[in-house]
Amino acid sequence: MQAISEKVKRLPPYLFAELGRKKTALQKKGIDVIDLGIGAPDLPTPKFIIDALIEEAQKPENHRYSPYSGCFEFRKAIAHFYKRQYGVELDPEKEVLTLIGSKEGLHHLIQTILNPGDAVILPNPGYPVYRTAVHLAGGKVIDLPLQAEQGFVPDYTLIKKEELQKAKMMLLNYPSNPTTATVQLNDYLKAITFAKENNLLLVNDMAYDLITFGDYKAPSALQVEGAKKHAVEFGSLSKSFNMTGWRIGYVVGNKKVIQALATLKSNIDSSQFLAVQKAAAIALESDLLEVKSHSQIFEERMELLYHALTNIGLKVQKPRGTIFLWVQVPKGYTSMSFAEKLLQEVGILVTPGIAFGSNGEGYVRISLSVSKERLQEVIRRLKTIEFKGGT
Ligand SMILES: *Cc1c(COP(=O)(O)O)cnc(C)c1O
């Protein structure tokens, strides 16, 4: 049978699925694998959101199709959240759109903007979904190399002029997966200026907007004066409210882009279950105290593992947000051989940096989504390892 398209046949296997298979194989041999590979919080969704879902699910009016752009209650809650959190005004009718998670939205946005052959500037290393989405849309990728020396914040002079001319959009993601880097508002000013000068749409992925540590607060690109002319921003309840399985997110910003994406989506999906949207509205309208206490849990885990890794001689930049640590691999290893060593010798699964692009080489991403007790076990096991030529 010749039924599968070239496009799909050429999709790289979703890396996390492959790691999952290796984990299962070891578990079948009776090994207690600690999975620090997965990029999802382990904590439960706050109870008040579950209660809201139960209540909304009982109402027959919520069993119908949602309006194509999402229900007004949710869009209004998003606009209100932006006003409170960032001081940014959004028109809930025209500048806000419900998504069935950011991943869906990113794919469809790229379909909305690209013609075959158009290029997109993507962070390298970056979230692998961006690259796949560009591939499926028949587009080309231009690398935006993110480097440790610059704190993994973009240096736009690294993009060649002749490449830039083909580019239609640029993606950024801060607080960053996988590098854990964070930015200041001034970095978004630079990004918007660059987008304006080169006639690009700036797409900022803020999946970790509320998972921040200490007194650091993640800014929004839309706080830059005039940003809505050049940018859209993605938000998701997945990470901040521990709602990955609920599939609920949003995109805000440029009206024309939002309208076009809404038109595309109205032909593909019919938005999210109304009860999920209404419960998500209640989440965003809340005092965000639960989000804060979840962030504190991630911060404590981060501190614990950060100090342990540093003590055994591994180099780690201390993050101000996200649910990860981005760890330099010791001399004599590649990201893959180091990840393989951890898995085979001590049953710890981490993600090799190369999975996030060529510039991820030399790093592994360690997820903080296990309990402190489990992290103590991780630390105990790590201390038993010997590295080639020390660290
Ligand atoms: C997890 C993640 C997403 C996906 O979020 P969903 O709303 O669950 O689809 C998007 N971007 C980044 C960088 C992520 O880490």
Automatic annotation (TrEMBL):
Its EC number is 2.6.1.-. The keyword Transferase applies. InterPro entries: Aminotransferase_I/II_large (IPR004839), LL-DAP_aminotransferase (IPR050881), NHTrfase_class1_PyrdxlP-BS (IPR004838), PyrdxlP-dep_Trfase (IPR015424), PyrdxlP-dep_Trfase_major (IPR015421), PyrdxlP-dep_Trfase_small (IPR015422). GO terms for molecular function: pyridoxal phosphate binding; transaminase activity. Residues 32-382 form the Aminotransferase class I/classII large domain. It comes from the Bacteria. It is an enzyme of class 2 (transferase). Its cofactor is pyridoxal 5'-phosphate. Keywords: Aminotransferase, Transferase. Pfam families: Aminotran_1_2. The keyword Phosphoprotein does not apply. Belongs to the class-I pyridoxal-phosphate-dependent aminotransferase family. NCBIfam families: PRK09276.1 (NF006756). This is Aminotransferase.
